[in-house]
Amino acid sequence: MATLSATIPSPPWPNPNPNPELDPRSDLPETPESISLAPDASPKSAFPSPRPTLLHLSFNQDHGCFAAGTDLGFRIYNCDPFREIFRRDFSQDPAGGGIAVVEMLFRCNILALVGGGPRPNFPANKIMIWDDHQSRCIGELAFRSDVRSVRLRRDRIVVVLEQKIFVYNFADLKLLHQIETISNPKGLCEVSQGAGSMALVCPGLLKGQVRVEHYASKRTKFVMAHDSRIACFALSSDGRFLATASSKGTLVRVFNAVDGSLLQEVRRGADRADIYSLAFSSNAQWLAVSSDKGTVHVFGLKVNSGAPVIDVTKTPSDANIAVQPHNPSLSFIKGVLPKYFSSEWSVAQFHLPEGSQYVVAFGHQKNTVVILGMDGSFYRCQFDPVAGGEMVQLEYRSFLEQEAS
């Protein structure tokens, strides 16, 4: 997802997993920061307000919903069919209404909120645990520096600061692990969402390095993914595959997240680009990429042997004409032409208005992608897995203009 956790005898929020599979690490302190329960607060009612300014967009864990944080509060939307589920407007709060991070927990009533914008509703160094059934905050985690991002599982809360990551047990907010990272202003971090034990990916301590934590085996793997700074990465939902992009933004590499081996390399383009998001399909057959070039690319992956994958090696001059790399008459090309000409290019593309940031995920319907723009745009598109080429736009919405349902 592109965003951009004292034993409490009777926690006031539902326990997402009463039997967590991880044992707390005995050598860790209980918590490096403060944890406190919020006092009772009156529910804040929703009422009409002017068009807000977007501060945050993110999908939930199964990409069926997305959350928008604004300078007035936050809103939750369903992707297919598209509809606004609910909104919370904090604009009348004397402190302000800005929400810079909204992290959903599937479709649960519990969310993690971090204040932001010119008039933040909450301090930027606190995570507020929001129960939407009660329309109030039921707890908080406070830190010595600003929170960059949050990741939730049913059994874990992962808090990302600029140079440190904390992993908490969701049931009792006990600290399980803390990780030092290189400077991470984007709050890059991903966690697996499968039923098994968690895998966590974050920047390492070196430029271009990615760290993978496997909690079931208590093993740490460092992957030197790029020579340049890591700009973006994604983890498949089962934690098996890792996709990374550097600040150059020309190549995307796919690794085995268990042993760190390079499985595949695909090319977004020849010129530099800022990669905004990477996303695996649910079966790891496809990988979607969005960047500042205004194009969303879908690549076919060969990493999952159980899924049939078409040949996606393309010529740069014509992305719709496949080069058959196993043809003996063309085998000499790889040894003569630069690596650029033997690169694997995207199967399908969708062109967007430039000038906005976009995050992408795969839809629940087959061969569809959902694209969210920081300009308030929502696109649902479909690609042809065989013919490839330009995707077909199925739906467009300007979601900030939508009335609450």
Q: How would you characterize this protein structure?
A:
The chain is mainly β and 405 residues long. It has one helix at 333-336, and strands at residues 34-36, 54-59, 65-70, 73-78, 83-89, 99-104, 110-115, 126-131, 136-142, 149-152, 156-160, 164-169, 175-180, 190-191, 199-203, 209-214, 219-224, 230-235, 241-246, 251-256, 262-267, 275-280, 286-291, 295-300, 314-315, 318-322, 348-351, 358-362, 368-373, 377-382, 389-390, 392-398. The chain has a domain at 188-405: 7 Propeller (Methylamine Dehydrogenase, Chain H), CATH 2.130.10.10. It is built from 1 helix and 32 strands. Strand 23 and strand 24 (295-300) form a beta hairpin. The chain is globular and about 55 Å long. It starts with 33 loop residues before the first strand and ends in a 7-residue tail after the last strand.
What's the short story on this structure?
It contains one helix and 32 strands. It is globular and about 55 Å long. The protein has one helix at residues 333-336, and strands at residues 34-36, 54-59, 65-70, 73-78, 83-89, 99-104, 110-115, 126-131, 136-142, 149-152, 156-160, 164-169, 175-180, 190-191, 199-203, 209-214, 219-224, 230-235, 241-246, 251-256, 262-267, 275-280, 286-291, 295-300, 314-315, 318-322, 348-351, 358-362, 368-373, 377-382, 389-390, 392-398.
Core attributes:
mainly beta; globular; five-stranded mixed beta sheet; five-stranded antiparallel beta sheet; 405 residues
Helix share of residues?
under 10%
Shape annotation: globular
Beta-sheet strand percentage? 35-45%
Average predicted local confidence, pLDDT: 80
**The named CATH superfamily of the domain at 188-405:** YVTN repeat-like/Quinoprotein amine dehydrogenase
In the CATH hierarchy, the third-tier topology of the domain at 188-405 is known as: Methylamine Dehydrogenase, Chain H
Main sheet characteristics:
5 strands, antiparallel
The quaternary state of the protein chains shown equals single chain
Stretches with pLDDT under 50, minimum 5 residues: 2-46, 306-337
CATH architecture of the domain at 188-405: 7 Propeller
